[in-house]
TrEMBL record:
<keyword id="KW-0328">Glycosyltransferase</keyword>
<keyword id="KW-0808">Transferase</keyword>
<dbReference type="InterPro" id="IPR035595">
    <property type="entry name" value="UDP_glycos_trans_CS"/>
</dbReference>
<dbReference type="GO" id="GO:0035251">
    <property type="term" value="F:UDP-glucosyltransferase activity"/>
</dbReference>
<protein>
    <recommendedName>
        <fullName>Glycosyltransferase</fullName>
        <ecNumber>2.4.1.-</ecNumber>
    </recommendedName>
</protein>
<dbReference type="Pfam" id="PF00201">
    <property type="entry name" value="UDPGT"/>
</dbReference>
<comment type="similarity">
    <text>Belongs to the UDP-glycosyltransferase family.</text>
</comment>
<dbReference type="InterPro" id="IPR002213">
    <property type="entry name" value="UDP_glucos_trans"/>
</dbReference>
Length: 469
């Protein structure tokens, strides 16, 4: 039920989501949440022509307005014409060039926003659009950053970028600061562009992002206070602008699939449930890039584990017909199912009763979705904040385990033996550690749902934020 506003003045929120499913979907959930909280609210979402169908389909039963911007067709020699989402980039190395290219949307966005200006209450912009700060400042519209990372990751980045930790190697463990939980980190938990701070395209772009964020009215985070309280308190005590934790937004994903609509992987999970088999869900996000050698090690580890698994993976065209993967798929037929280059409803999979574990890159959305469906995690971090999230999953939340290389590093080449052992550890439902992980994730699930319920911490925080606007 929508809450009554303390003011009769209608609220008009403009949302500018970044063109990647992992960035867009939480903001679509936020749109629904805003309508649930206030009856006198309007929401306008800006997107591009190619991304519009997905957004329109997701919000077809809401009153959200959707405005399409024209994305430049050719702005970088390595980005194919017509690519309007990072999910379709040929290489993750093109992420920053793609982000910088979105600035070409600015003139059209500025013009349209200016035409809406008398009725706009605030702009919620993805952090990857630092250029949106300019028009917000010019029109005196409060800009709120949407930051898809956790509080803990952002606190760690802030500390590690401003303090020097003297260690002999990138794998030497050190503690951050005494006032925070004693999460042991290594330099390999941090992306090189942040730990080395060398000038370059990546550093320049992230400097723009940090500068724009510092000028914003606040930061919206897809988290909840009870999940990482020490880190929320630290950020709001030591940093600005204020972080508003209003999640987990994935709890707004309530789609029910009828029998006629069930995709083949859900039907496969149904079969495993009828047989009483536990399934490991394996997925590394839409941006993950791995060598063929690493994919083979994962495959061998999964095969040797003896567990049933559903593996959703993105394969480049160059290795789609790889002989090893074809033979592997045939060998595990019945016990393992591979879903290649298709977008799946991840929450729907995690919600399935047969799924008892999630081998994940530990993107923040995936961590939250796992918590909200009470599924423990096997962390296989690849890039960005994922190594930090995997640390939190194992050492702070205690709802999972993570892979390590043969020499104990968190970054590098992960062998099949490590993967096999970690899969067995995660899926050992009756083992002492398995029981502890499942007990902890169920507790966090309950806290997450309480936070989003009326009167909960996230519910209350969103109400306070709306009242400030």
């Amino acid at each position: 039920m929508a809450s009554s506003s303390s003011s009769e003045t209608p609220l008009h929120v403009v949302i500018l989501p970044f063109m990647a499913k992992g960035h867009t979907i939480p903001l679509l959930h936020l749109t629904r949440l805003l309508f649930l909280h206030r009856s006198n609210i309007a929401v306008t979402i800006f997107t591009t022509h190619a991304n519009s169908p997905f957004i329109r389909q997701s919000l077809h039963d809401t009153e959200a307005s959707i405005i399409e911007l024209t994305f430049p067709q050719k702005f970088h020699p390595e980005i194919p014409q017509g690519v309007e989402s990072v999910d379709k980039l040929p290489s993750q190395s093109l992420l920053v060039p793609f982000c910088k290219g979105t600035k070409l949307l600015q003139p059209e966005f500025d013009t349209i926003l200016q035409s809406l200006r008398p009725n706009v209450s605030c702009l919620i912009s993805d952090v990857f659009f630092p250029w949106s700060m300019e028009i917000a400042t010019k029109l005196s519209i409060p800009r709120l950053d949407f930051d898809g990372a956790s509080n803990s990751a952002m606190v760690f980045y802030d500390i590690l970028m401003t303090q020097e930790f003297l260690v002999d190697s990138d794998d030497e463990i050190f503690s951050v600061i005494p006032s925070l939980p004693d999460i042991k980190l290594t330099k390999n938990d941090i992306e090189p562009e942040f730990s080395n701070q060398q000038p370059g395209e990546h550093t320049d772009f992230y400097t723009e992002v940090i500068t724009a964020t510092s000028k914003s009215k606040g930061i919206i985070r897809n988290s909840f206070y009870e999940l990482e309280p020490e880190f929320v308190d630290y950020w709001n005590r030591e940093n600005s602008p204020k972080a508003w934790n209003i999640g987990p937004l994935c709890l707004l994903a309530t789609k029910v699939i009828s029998c006629e609509e069930k995709p083949m992987w859900i039907q496969w999970l149904d079969e495993k449930l009828e047989m009483g088999e536990s399934v490991l869900y394996v997925a590394f996000g839409s941006l993950a890039e791995m060598t063929m050698e690493q994919l083979r090690e994962i495959a061998i580890g999964l095969e040797n584990s003896g567990e049933h698994f559903l593996w959703v993976l993105r394969l480049p065209e160059s290795i789609m017909g790889d002989k090893f993967m074809s033979e592997f798929e045939e060998r595990v037929k019945g016990r393992g199912l591979l879903v290649k280059n298709q977008w799946v409803d991840q929450v729907g999979i995690l919600r399935h009763e047969s799924v008892h574990g999630f081998m994940s890159h530990c993107g923040w959305n995936s961590v939250l979705e796992s918590i909200c469906e009470s599924v423990p995690l096997l962390g296989f971090p690849i890039t960005a904040d994922q190594h930090l999230n995997a640390r939190m999953v194992e050492e702070y939340f205690r709802i999972g385990v993570k892979v390590v290389t043969g020499n104990g590093s968190v970054r590098g080449f992960f062998g099949s033996e490590c993967i096999e052992n970690k899969v067995k550890e995660l899926m050992d439902i009756e083992g002492e550690k398995g029981k502890e992980m499942r007990k902890n994730v169920k507790k966090l699930n309950e806290k997450a749902r309480n936070a989003m319920a009326e009167g909960g911490s996230s519910w209350h925080t969103l109400n306070l934020l709306i009242d400030e606007l």
